[in-house]
Amino acid sequence: MADKKRVLSCIQPTGDMHFGNYFGAVKNWVNLQKEYTCMYGVVDYHAMTMPYNPKKLKENTWELIYNLLAVGIEPENLFIQSLVPEHAELGWILNNFASFGRVENMTQFKDKSQQSSAGKEGFISVGLFDYPVLQAADILIYRADYVPVGEDQKQHLELTKEIANRFNNQVGKEYFVLPEMLRTVTPKIMSTADPMKKMSKSAGEKHNISLFAEEARIRKQIGSAVTDSGAVPEGELSVGIQNLFTLLKAADKMAAHDSLLQTYQEGNLKYSELKATVADTLVELSADFKQKKEALVQDKKSIKNQLKQSSHEIRLRAQQTIKEVKDLCGLSNVRF
Ligand code: TYM
Q: Does residue 34 carry a catalytic annotation?
């Protein structure tokens, strides 16, 4: 039987998982597990690139693991990035195949460096700059065929392919697989507080709705969602309203979506009715996940052991790649 195709994706432990993460990427991760060999990383090395608190980083890492298990990720497919240090080793090697000019142009670096320099010390780390190369290493180290991510990762995926191509050309072998991006039907969820911005953890609390938030908070955030954002061409939805419809679509509530859209087109839609439907939908989904998480946190010890084991198994694949890459690059490769 032919080998299954490989899927790799990752998420940063920088706070609670939000509906943007879930609808834009993680929901797909769950479904892909049925068909492919999947590896999903909680990327704690990445979370060091912005000012952070070490104690909080460890807490966030485990919190995110429970979140991911609660939404349906299988423990054997999950790993913690820093337990597979070969990611950092490949990252260093790939630095030498990445164009400075291209890395300098990454929009996420520009956005985040602005946030970082607006902080207390006005400090921007080299890690933040180099982040996309480590991301390329995360993907290429497993020779992944598919990478399920939200729209905001498109540029990083393109850079990954360029790095893989340059590496392959230089070593004279089609060693790295050029990975393909996989999108959900809703690859970009916007902030309900400012629908011109994407929903994100780094933009601040009001710009994301946690998947595990209290019911009252979810209702409040949807209830105060911005709906009017300047002039909208005749017949089109404002970005805020569009985003609320997108949330219904993302949650597979197509009957409610279509009937509310029809009411809108007839000119009879009450925004309060749309908001109440969206809030009910998110609350229902969240309640289910919270219940699953509650059961999981009863058994922290066995989850820790599972993650240790799965990270170890996944590491063996990464070690194999590093060995081959070192040979191809002319680096020494002896066993001590
Ligand atoms: P992160 O942690 O910001 O987000 C995790 C995943 O959620 C998606 N996402 C969204 N999708 C739709 N709408 C949104 N508002 C939204 N916000 C986030 C992201 O696209 C992502 O798929 N650089 C990555 C982490 C990473 C990675 C990797 C991803 C590191 N190495 C290797 C894939 C492969 C990041 O910061 O994602």
A: no
Q: Which fold has domain 6-186+300-329?
A: Rossmann fold (3.40.50)
Q: How far is CA 275 from CA 221, 268, 279, 292, in A?
A: 10, 14, 6, 26
Q: How far is the CA of 118 from the centre of ligand 1 (A)?
A: 23
Share above pLDDT 70 across residues of the chain, in percent, rounded to a whole number = 97
Please indicate, yes or no, whether the overall pTM of this predicted structure exceeds 0.85.
yes
Out of 5-19, 26-40, 111-125, 252-266, pick the least confident: 111-125
Q: Look up residue 150 and give its two tokens.
A: 């939200």
Pocket test for ligand 1, best of 26, 84, 153, 211 (most atoms within 8 A of CB): 153
Instruction: Tell me whether residue 112 is one of the annotated catalytic residues.
Output: yes
- Per-residue pLDDT tens for 41-61? 999 999 999 999 999 999 999
State if residue 153 touches ligand 1 by the CB under 6 angstroms criterion.
yes
Q: Is the C-beta atom of 10 inside 6 A of ligand 1?
A: yes
Atom 6, ligand 1: residue with shortest CA distance: 21
CB distance 86 to ligand 1 below 6 Å = no
Q: Within the chain, which residue ranges are assigned CATH 1.10.240.10? A: 205-295
Domain with CATH 3.40.50.620 in the chain: 6-186+300-329
Q: Please compute the mean of the pLDDT values over residues 17-28 and round it to a whole number.
A: 98
* Ligand 1 atom index nearest CA of 138: 32
DSSP 236-274: PPPHHHHHHHHHHHHTT-HHHHHHHHHHHHTT---HHHH
CA 134 distance to own-chain centroid:
15
Please report which helix (H) or strand (E) contains residue 37, including its range.
strand 37-42
Would you call 220 a catalytic residue per the annotation? no
Rounded to 5, what percent of the chain is helix, strand, coil?
A: 60, 5, 35
The fold of the 205-295 domain, in CATH, is: Tyrosyl-Transfer RNA Synthetase (1.10.240)
